[in-house]
Design brief:
alpha/beta, binds adenosine monophosphate, 6-stranded parallel beta sheet
Length: 285
Amino acid sequence: MDVIRTPDEMRAWTRGRRESARRVGLVPTMGALHDGHASLISRSTEADDATVVSVFVNPTQFNRQTDFDLYPRTEADDFAMCDCLGVDAVYAPSAEVMYPSGSSTIIDPGPLAHVLEGASRAGHFAGVATVVVKLLMAVEPDVAYFGEKDLQQVAVVTRVVSDLDLAVTISAQPTVRETDGLAMSSRNVRLTAQDRAAATCIPHALSAVRDAVKDGNTDVTALRAMMHQILRSEPRCTVDYAEIVDRHSFTPVDTVDDAAAACIAAWFGDVRLIDNLVLSNWTGV
Ligand code: AMP
């Protein structure tokens, strides 16, 4: 497995393999890899001729400095996991390489970036869009894999790729969960034992809404209230949002249809977790 640190070397690596690697897959990550990342990586190693994993904790998508500072960084373990999974190259540029002094271009994905998660985290999706485009330009993959755990991120990246005519397919993959339903996340290691136990209220709230919809309840006000009630009954949980939205626009829906998704962001101590469920998908949490 090759470890690559600059965009020029990354581009040369992909171009040098083009004859044998007709389909190159990219899995963008911020490291601290877990089984959720592993499932995206395996999807690529199964389907693609070459797999690249990027590992970069992107400062421009953090709206709180402490969240960036405390974000887990486990580079040696990440590289070992990638190697075990059959990854061909890891692209791990430094912040100085990605954002050298004087760099100032930011991609604004438009309205989608300013609602729900974007409303809670000003500038977050502009940071995501900018770094994803930079990674795509360096790696030049045919397919890039993203997790549905970050459902709005998938929508933003799909929008940006379409708007900028980028020649890459965005592949969205299902959320991998712990046995008690909590979505795997690099931030989970920062939870105290009590907060880790309390955080299962998120998948409980999502599955309760999913089950209610399955039983024919499509009253959005009642479903939303049900989510809030379950989350509020856990004293360690501070809700940021718990909404039912259209999975394409991420604006509130009046009635539940196939495009409706329940989306939750909540704090446990100083750790903010997000999760979601597309309500027509009965196999989620
Ligand atoms: P991150 O390192 O948190 O930026 O995540 C990198 C990619 O892995 C993103 O596309 C995430 O949506 C995806 N991802 C994170 N957690 C999970 C999970 N539990 N299941 C599936 N994909 C995930």
